[in-house]
Design a protein that fits this description.
single chain; alpha/beta; seven-stranded mixed sheet; five-stranded mixed sheet
Length: 383
């Protein structure tokens, strides 16, 4: 048997979230949607060559903000139908298929690899943990039997199978719509399903309490950093006066290689500083003629991408623009709202204000303006 193999992951995330009031797979945990954390766990596994996410089209744009290279499939009316839809998109050359609940965001990539290896060697394997509570059978509210806890395991996902084994099980038992997992079907084929030890953090998000537990686990592995940003631009005629993505009527505008939005520039540098990730002059050199006149919101979008690559999230922004004219105070609300939308954070986490330069120097004479900014980010040491 080969020592290396290829695997495909089918992540089922088609639920409507009736218990949560909205699709639970899109709810955030530590700044990332639940299903995105599931995807990232599989992307950390070298043997996983492709990931198929089974989810409605309206969910996909949000997912693609965090991850790329994903194959999407439409969900079915039942879990089994959704799995079948995902499997239909699996590359015919793959050796092993992992089926995972999109609502299990804290699965350990090391355990995924173990389950995939066991399935490749034995035909089928599921992640599982020993049952901790005593389990009783009952009828009409009366205990009829106490089960032997030492023999009981709670099955998790991913559940992994040789591709031909899973396809055969799905084809032969396609009418069993009430099956709660695929291993039930594989067992009926006579294939022995291997139990691979997992951990209790790989639980399925089902209730609001589960969200609280998951958030607490994620926050155990985070720390906060603060960055400082600064920018200065001259003012001149025939230019737009744009701050924080908002154009303010004025006889002068900012002179620069980009649109001159010094508020966005200072905030972007503050975020990058908190991540020790350089500054925007490196990402968008002023000597590059291809980006002349670039919209600074494009710069912010690139910075947001870097934030996600660092497994971080922005938790607070504070910017102060120093300019003699025009009056900025009437535009506070518009600029704050714009910054919140651009950086994809709540309005309550954005501060923006202005100061005059008391008619001192070039800024005080209306020939220039500057901005100082501070950003606080939360960085996670794990996915």
């Amino acid at each position: 048997m080969r020592t290396t193999f290829s695997a495909s992951a089918v992540i089922v995330a088609g639920g409507t979230g009736s218990r949560m009031g909205r699709p639970k797979q899109l709810l955030p945990i530590g700044g990332k949607p639940i299903v995105v954390r599931s995807i990232l766990a599989f992307q950390a596994c070298p043997c996983v060559r492709e990931i198929i996410v089974v989810t409605p089209p309206e969910n996909r744009l949000l997912i693609e903000k965090f991850v790329s290279g994903i194959i999407f499939a439409d969900p079915g009316d039942t879990r089994l139908a959704s799995v079948e839809s995902g499997v239909q998109n699996v590359n015919s050359q793959t050796d092993v298929i992992a089926v995972h609940d999109g609502a299990r965001p804290l699965v350990n990539p090391v355990h995924i690899e173990k389950a995939l290896r066991a399935a490749y060697e034995k035909g089928a394997a599921v992640l599982a943990v020993p049952v901790k509570d005593t389990v009783k059978e009952g009828t009409n509210g009366v205990v009829t039997h106490t089960l032997d806890r030492s023999k009981l395991w709670a099955a998790q996902t991913p559940q992994c199978y040789q591709r031909t084994v899973l396809i055969q099980a799905l084809e032969r038992f396609s009418n069993e719509k009430d099956a709660t997992d695929e291993s039930q079907l594989v067992e009926k084929l006579g294939v022995k399903v291997q139990l691979v030890s997992s951990d209790y953090t790989n639980f399925k998000i089902t209730t609001p309490e589960d969200l609280i537990f998951a958030e607490a686990l994620v926050n155990e592995h985070c720390y906060y950093r603060t960055g400082f940003g600064f920018d200065l631009h001259r003012l001149g005629p025939d230019r737009k006066f744009i701050i924080g993505g908002v154009e303010i009527p004025h006889e002068k505008g900012f002179i620069g290689h980009s649109d001159g939005d010094l508020v966005l520039h200072a905030l972007c540098d503050a975020v990058l500083g908190a991540l020790c990730a350089g500054e925007i002059g490196i990402l968008f050199p002023p000597t590059d003629p291809t980006i002349k006149g670039i919209d600074s919101k494009e710069i912010a979008r690139r910075v947001l991408q870097i934030v996600r690559e660092h497994h971080a999230e922005i938790v607070h922004l504070d910017a102060t623009i120093i300019t003699q004219e025009p009056k900025i105070k009437p535009h506070y609300d518009a600029v704050r709202s714009s910054l919140a939308a651009i950086f994809e954070i709540p309005l309550s986490q954005v501060s923006f204000k202005s100061k005059s330069h008391e008619h001192v120097g070039e800024i005080g004479h209306g020939e220039a303006a500057m901005c100082q900014a501070v950003a606080t980010v939360k960085v996670r040491s794990e996915l």
